[in-house]
UniProtKB/TrEMBL annotation:
Residues 4-32 form the Protein YjdM N-terminal domain. Pfam families: YjdM (PF03831), Zn_Ribbon_YjdM (PF08274). Belongs to the YjdM family. It comes from the Bacteria. Residues 48-115 form the Protein YjdM C-terminal domain. This is Alkylphosphonate utilization protein.
Amino acid sequence: MSDLPACPSCGSNLTYEDSGLYICPECAHEWSSTPTAAPEAEEGKRVVRDAVGNELRDGDAVTVIKDLKVKGSSLVVKMGTKVKNIRLVEGDHDIDCKIDGIGAMQLKSEFVRKA
């Protein structure tokens, strides 16, 4: 009799372990063999980091580290532009903000550093 857990996806008892993962041959579901503490809490907490690795939060001030062209316009956000009171949002462009002279826009966290 096997000590391996049943598949959480389909409930099959035919699971096997390979390179630290449990694998179900019936539904091809793979999951980690190491238990994680509170996976629901990890999903809800998303960490956004700037270009140098500092954690960003809502309300922070950031500085742009590269000249950024604004799509659909001839405007450019210059390097060194300080942006205050950012909001973190889901998606590819994870910072929502207002820039003086340009207006509301979204930035990628990889192009800013915490001020």
